[in-house]
Amino acid sequence: MGIGGNYGELLKKENLRNTKHRNSVIEIIAGNGQPIDAESIFLKLKEQNISISLSTVYRVLETLVSKEIVSKTSINCDNKALYEIKDAQHRHHLMCVKCKKMLSVDGCPLEEYEKALEDKLGFSIKGHKLEMFGYCQDCKQE
Ligand SMILES: [Zn+2]
Ligand SMILES: [Zn+2]
Q1: What separation in Å is there between the alpha carbon of 69 and the centre of ligand 2?
Q2: What's residue 76's pLDDT?
Q3: Same domain membership, residue 115 and residue 81
Q4: How many independent structural domains does the chain possess?
Q5: Alpha-carbon span 9 to 48, nearest angstrom
Q6: What is the domain-level CATH number for residue 110?
Q7: Residues 16 and 79 in one domain
Q8: Ligand nearest 139 Cα, by number?
Q9: Nearest to 21 by CA among 35, 1, 9, 7
Q10: Residues 102/34, Cβ–Cβ less than 8 Å
Q11: pTM tops 0.90
Q12: CA–centroid distance, residue 135 to ligand 1 (Å)
């Protein structure tokens, strides 16, 4: 889904009014290329001369998360929650502890392991979180 694409449709499907604020927040998250925190979203909206308060950004995010349009990543950057567009794709994140850059990696190595655990423990696994920390290519050279 491209930036400025069918987010209106997405909102409509969830019976949400297609407000400028909601649309703009989704566009920023989608266009950012990596998970982003509420404050950065707020600053980017300001740059675009969109008048919104930080508390409204949080409220919009809450709505979008509850409608499963946006998801909150389990990774915390300086104790700030990070948000990304939720899609069917299950992915994991790598975070650089130095520059805070985050990479999303597609695919999951844990499916086999989940199955094995389900068999062994009779547990019905509905999901998991796996985040990796370290130094990115730029930072590890120093
Ligand atoms: Zn780095
Ligand atoms: Zn996984």
Answers
A1: 19
A2: 64
A3: no
A4: 2
A5: 23
A6: 3.30.1490.190
A7: yes
A8: 1
A9: 7
A10: yes
A11: no
A12: 5
- Range of the structural domain that residue 1 is part of: 1-87
pLDDT of residue 1: 38
Q: Identify which ligand lies nearest to the alpha carbon of 91.
A: 2
pLDDT of residue 88: 58
> Is 51 in the same domain as 111?
no
**Tens place of pLDDT per residue across the chain (142 aa):** 344 456 777 777 777 777 889 999 999 998 887 889 999 999 999 999 999 999 999 999 999 999 888 988 766 666 788 898 887 567 788 989 999 888 888 788 888 999 999 999 999 988 887 889 999 999 998 6
Tell whether 115 and 76 lie within a shared domain: no
Measured in angstroms, how far is the CA atom of residue 105 from the centroid of ligand 2?
A: 10
